[in-house]
Specification:
Helix content: 25-40%
Bound molecules: thiamine diphosphate, magnesium ion
Structural class: alpha/beta
Number of helices: 8
CATH topology: Rossmann fold
Strand content: 5-15%
CATH class: Alpha Beta
């Protein structure tokens, strides 16, 4: 999110619907706190609004709503749909001779959804080199590890066989992320898939690699400890 919003995306916070903007589809919509934080930091809305997160009167719901939140390009939360939408945006860009790029963030559990692979076939068929998929490969989903639930491995070989240019990186390394985006831009006639190896809860000792923290809020003591460690 940091590299996308502060380095990569060609966007205008004072014109969220600018037709030539790069698009981001956060297909793993439950990751909305990261998206909202980046949008607020970039200036789409006030940081004060973040305090309303998930409150019934707030526009910042657990799953992002494109009709309610400036800067959100696609509503998401029902997993498995984002790549299809990103394909549509990328095809549209080509038909309209616009040179914007489309980014789509998928979860490693999310790609167990069949629709992802139907979409991947289409990304390849339409040679969507303006599309860059990022798989957040943290090896965890809501109920446990990827292998325990329904293994999506080998993710690299799957996307390769679907015709993607595949790059595997350390998803916490800013330099590697930037390089991968550059590689994607240079790659013509095929879509790119960046497999970002990540650690869920990175930087907070008691949260790292714990599926139990998937959607839980810390108590006051845990919150203070987490802030200290960060
Ligand atoms: C279609 C659908 N099924 C189930 C869920 C419930 N759900 C929310 S997050 C999640 C886990 C997804 O795992 P992953 O894609 O690896 O994301 P991560 O937990 O790593 O953020 C599930 C099953 C959902 N949001 N949509
Ligand atoms: Mg995951």
């Amino acid at each position: 999110m940091a590299v996308l919003y502060f380095d990569e995306l060609n966007i205008k916070e004072n014109d969220p619907n600018w037709k030539k903007r790069d698009r981001l589809v956060l297909s793993k919509g439950h990751c909305s706190p990261a998206l909202y934080a980046a949008l607020a930091e970039r200036g789409y809305f006030s940081k004060e609004d973040l305090k309303g997160f998930r409150n019934i009167t707030s526009n910042l719901q657990g799953h992002p709503n494109m009709n309610d939140v400036p800067g959100v390009d696609m509503s998401s939360g029902s997993l498995g749909q984002g790549l299809s939408v990103a394909n549509g945006m990328a095809i549209s860009g080509k038909l309209d001779n616009k040179d914007y790029r489309v980014y789509c963030i998928l979860g490693d559990g999310e790609i167990e959804e069949g629709q992802i692979w139907e979409a991947a076939m289409a990304s390849n068929k339409y040679r969507l080199d303006n599309l860059c998929v990022i798989v957040d490969n943290n090896n965890l989903q809501i109920d446990g590890t990827i292998e325990e639930v329904m293994s999506s491995y080998p993710i690299d070989k799957k996307f390769e066989s679907f015709g993607f240019n595949v790059i595997t990186i350390d998803g916490h390394n800013m330099g590697e992320i930037k390089e991968a985006f550059e590689n994607a831009k240079q790659t013509k006639n095929k879509p790119t898939c960046i497999i970002a190896k990540t650690i869920k809860g990175k930087g907070i000792s008691f949260m790292e690699n714990q599926a139990g923290w998937h959607g839980k809020a810390p108590n006051q003591e845990q919150y203070e400890q987490a802030l200290k460690e960060l």
